[in-house]
Specification:
Length: 201
């Protein structure tokens, strides 16, 4: 019984194999077409992958260039503010009694408008001068971080604050400050340069 069934199955497959076959030329054409399509799809996939990688690399290069340019611009801004504070400090040290920031108000500040305001805070934290005009010397800035940063420390370093609302200008600004030394070399106060936060963006 099993033998007969096996023969029946073989006979059925044999009948199927003996059916009409595609001509050899057509089979070769189909095989060639399959190979061409395979190569074509492989090429397309490779091109897509390479294009994606190139785009990613280009975006990374552009982002790196923009970040580098932004960093350089920021460093130039910080350096320019610090140079102006150092210059004002040198003027102060030459003659503290004659030191006057009014020339900045008369000349409308620096031409590039980098420094919104320059100010001088004395050794106890009182605002003594500002380039924005007259001050009566009664405004205390002794609680401001940009004053406290220079108090009771031997360090002579540039301090850059977080954006603060100016008590005189009533505008938001970033405070760049430098310690001021008296004729005896002791702490004589702080020079402040106020920068519009837009310059830091």
């Amino acid at each position: 019984m099993v033998l007969l069934e096996s023969r029946g199955v073989r006979g059925w497959f044999g009948h199927m194999q003996a059916g009409p076959r595609l001509p050899r030329a057509v089979r070769l054409d189909l095989l060639l077409l399959g190979l061409i399509l395979g190569v074509l799809w492989t090429a397309i996939a490779t091109w897509c992958v390479l294009g994606y990688r190139n785009n990613v690399a280009m975006v990374q290069r552009v982002s790196g260039s923009l970040a580098g340019a932004s960093e350089q611009a920021m460093l130039r801004t910080v350096e320019a503010m610090d140079q102006r504070l150092i210059y004002l400090r040198q003027v102060f040290r030459r003659d503290p009694a004659a030191f006057d920031l009014s020339f900045l108000a008369e000349d409308n500040g620096y031409k590039d408008r980098l420094m919104m305001q320059a100010a001088f805070i004395d050794e106890v934290g009182m605002l003594r001068q500002t380039s924005l005009g007259h001050t009566d010397g009664t405004l205390s800035l002794a609680d401001r971080p940009h004053f406290l940063a220079h108090l009771n420390t031997p360090d002579d370093a540039l301090y850059i604050s977080a954006p603060v609302l100016g008590r005189v200008s009533q505008k938001w600004s970033v405070q760049f400050t430098r310690k001021v030394f008296g004729p005896d070399g002791g702490f004589a106060g702080v020079l402040v340069g106020s920068l519009d936060p837009a310059w830091m963006m």
